[in-house]
Design brief:
209 residues, TF_Kbox, TF_MADSbox
């Protein structure tokens, strides 16, 4: 016969309630024993009936299990307390950072010329001084970058000139090597003409003493 689904509510009939308690108590104690044996678990089970009668089961010493439970809950509560303190510190730090960011944003708007209608003369002078310092740093950095760029261009120019000289020499030497004997003789004559020294002298003749 199929068992019907039991509604989860208090059994009003005292006799039925006592019978159900006895059956389920024994089943619960049996399951606790089986779990402790099969899984090598430390289990302690305490049951008080409606009349105040105690039923218990423990796979080991009941008192040691209770002490272990109390220690665990105490450590867990301490851990939770530490976590709450840490969380509170994070909230305070976040609030401080938000305030600091708002202050920086307000100062930034002042440097941009916004919200300065109610600034005093001293505040305006301070803003002007900060802008002058910032402008000086910007110009200094700009000059440095410009100088670096000029140096790079000069180095590039030098490299191109050297490559141009090498290319010119290559164009002069290679045709000479690959030319005919007649052309080589022509090149030699040109070289000799370039190296000829004459005794021609322009000016008054030297007098013999």
């Amino acid at each position: 016969m199929v068992r019907g689904k039991i509604e989860m509510k208090k059994i009003e009939n005292a006799t039925s309630r006592q019978v159900t308690f006895s059956k389920r108590r024994n089943g619960l104690l049996k399951k606790a024993y089986e779990l402790s044996v099969l899984c090598d678990a430390q289990i302690s089970l305490i049951i008080f009936s409606q009349r105040g009668r105690l039923y218990e089961f423990s796979s080991s010493d009941m008192q040691k299990t209770i002490e272990r439970y109390r220690k665990y809950t105490k450590d867990h509560e301490t851990s939770n307390h530490d976590s709450q303190i840490y969380l509170q510190e994070l909230k305070q730090e976040a609030s401080h950072m938000i305030t600091k960011i708002d202050h920086l944003e307000f100062h930034k708007r002042k440097l941009l010329g916004q919200e300065i209608a109610f600034c005093s003369l001293e505040e305006l002078q301070e803003i002007d001084s900060q802008l002058q310092k910032s402008l000086g740093k910007v110009r200094e950095r700009k000059a440095q970058l410009f100088k670096e760029q000029v140096e790079k261009l000069k180095a590039k120019e030098k490299q191109l000139l050297e490559e141009n000289v090498k290319l010119h020499r290559k164009n002069v030497i290679e045709p000479w090597r690959g030319s005919s004997d007649r052309q080589q003789e022509k090149y030699k004559v040109i070289d000799l003409n370039l190296e000829v020294e004459t005794d021609l002298f322009i000016g008054l003749p030297k007098r013999n003493c």
